[in-house]
Amino acid sequence: MASSLTCAGIVWAFLSFFCAAASCVGFFMPYWLLGSQLEKSVSFGTFRRCAYPVRDESRQTTVMVEQCGRYASFQAIPSAEWRICTVVTGLGCGLLLLVALTALMGCCVSELISRTVGRVAGGIQFLGG
Q1: Which structural domain range is residue 83 located in?
Q2: Per the domain annotation, does 12 fall within a domain?
Q3: Angle in degrees, CA 107, 108, 111, rounded to 5
């Protein structure tokens, strides 16, 4: 298969893919902040959380749900800043993944990535980062 990339471009394509994958995994994992609450270990990320308190109305107490899950809705994310972080980080991961997959296709398809397209992709990658 012919490639439109130089050796440096091929290295860039594979590094872009691995970095985009690591960013996406980090975004989806709920281990950004670790701590304890009600004597239980808790953690949460931008839109997932593990071991979180829930009000039990039948017993009028707060109990810990010891499982990981997403927030029930976008509005259930604790603060506006955290919602903004979720959107910005998600968009960044999406842009990084788009550039990385395009670069990998450039390894297999000739004439897909020109000098100008490479520069634009680098700019998009900078914006995504």
Answers
A1: 7-128
A2: yes
A3: 80
34 in a domain, yes or no? yes
Q: Tell me the residue ranges of DSSP E strands in the chain.
A: 33-37, 40-44, 48-56, 61-70
The pTM for the full model equals 0.73
Q: Give CA separation, 85 vs 2, 76, 97, 126, in Å.
A: 40, 14, 18, 17
CA dihedral 112, 115, 121, 122 (to 10 degrees): 150
Cα–Cα distance, 34 to 50 (Å, whole number): 10
Is residue 1 over pLDDT 70? no
- Of 1, 22, 4, 24, give the one whose Cα is nearest residue 121: 4
Asked if residue 111 belongs to a domain, the reply is yes
In a domain, 1, yes or no: no
Region 51-71 average pLDDT: 79
